[in-house]
UniProtKB/TrEMBL annotation:
Keyword Cell inner membrane attached: no
Keywords, alphabetical: 2Fe-2S, 4Fe-4S, Biotin biosynthesis, Iron, Iron-sulfur, Metal-binding, S-adenosyl-L-methionine, Transferase
Class of the enzyme per the UniProt entry, highest EC level: transferase
Aminoacyl-tRNA synthetase in keyword set: no
GO molecular function: 2 iron, 2 sulfur cluster binding; 4 iron, 4 sulfur cluster binding; biotin synthase activity; iron ion binding
SMART domains: BATS, Elp3
Subunit annotation: Homodimer.
BP term (GO), one: biotin biosynthetic process
Binding site for [4Fe-4S] cluster: 65, 69, 72
Name the UniProt record assigns to this protein: Biotin synthase
Organism annotation: Streptomyces nodosus
Family listed: Belongs to the radical SAM superfamily. Biotin synthase family.
Residue ranges constituting the Radical SAM core domain according to the UniProt record: 47-277
NCBIfam families: bioB
Amino acid sequence: MDLLNTLVDKGLRREPPTREEALAVLATSDDDVLDVVAAAGKVRRHWFGRRVKLNYLVNLKSGLCPEDCSYCSQRLGSKAEILKYTWLKPDQASQAAAAGVAGGAKRVCLVASGRGPTDRDVDRVSDTIRTIKEQNEGVEVCACLGLLSEGQAEQLRAAGADAYNHNLNTSEATYGDITTTHTYADRVDTVQKAHAAGLSACSGLIAGMGESDEDLVDVVFSLRELDPDSVPVNFLIPFEGTPLAKEWNLTPQRCLRILAMVRFVCPDAEVRIAGGREVHLRTLQPLALHLANSLFLGDYLTSEGQAGRADLEMIADAGFEVEGTDQVTLPGHRVAGGCGSHQEAGCGSHQEAGCGSHGSGGCGSHEGPGVCGSASAPASGEPRTDLVAVRRRGAGTDLAPNA
Ligand code: SF4
């Protein structure tokens, strides 16, 4: 396909596709999905080889948020029966982080629900960052605390944070339909504050909220302009008890096309498969490794992911390798300085997988009912509520974390 040859050539040169080309990727048919994966896979391997960076989420503060992000199980008025707790102590957070590091994660993403941190919250998270860094040699720390005020990014950087995550989530045009308590411009401002403080910026999106292809392309081109080092791609987990509970719009093939489009637009950025991979990619998850070079190990913020061991086995079986702490995630030109180069690697997302959009994602516990043993396979695109399991282990519980 001429389109794919063109996009590979551009991706290897770090040249963006045109808007029309990005839309054309999303419009390819299911018959062509392996060709799309193969083409975007060439770009992924050119910049990142076969390495997969593992990130581990620690939900420092869960639920009870005053904001109204529609995709989020922690939002104001959410009826989702998620864990709710206030700030973990530094030692508790460090213990949770250590489990992720022992499981192979090189980055820990510290997430807290809320509009944004108070200065006291930043003090508290700074203590937690120092504790984690002292107790886990070589680990990268990304903070994801919502909208930042003046000076807070600098304070987090001084405490040892490597990165800050805040997702754009969706296009500017549709942002007001998803959230009314803050604006798209607020989000852009926080990503810029993180950049300016010397933190590696992490900012991504949530697909599957009812947006159009144009919206998806808009948000990905806006991200390219902001130039984050890492771009988490969440697939909405339609949580019961949230306004988007009925938005089951994604198929595994659609998820692959979205990841491929993101890879073509941001060829040398860390593209991370974030929340919702188990729920929406399902058995096609290994194909997504040919597009993304990063994922979250184990559980998400408020939902459970597949067993950490299953993540590791999937990576090995697909012929990829877990990136070590001695390996640099980003290509040399991004590490060396300049825009979007912030010394090290990328980060996460609040939606579920990660932060910045603390809401949707993440999950697909394979322990729950359904999945295995079902007599008949559900049609593609059908709601898979059987794959959504609220997190009941790890941070905020007495049970061991999944890592
Ligand atoms: S995404 Fe973050 S800010 Fe929005 S409702 Fe969820 S926790 Fe609150």
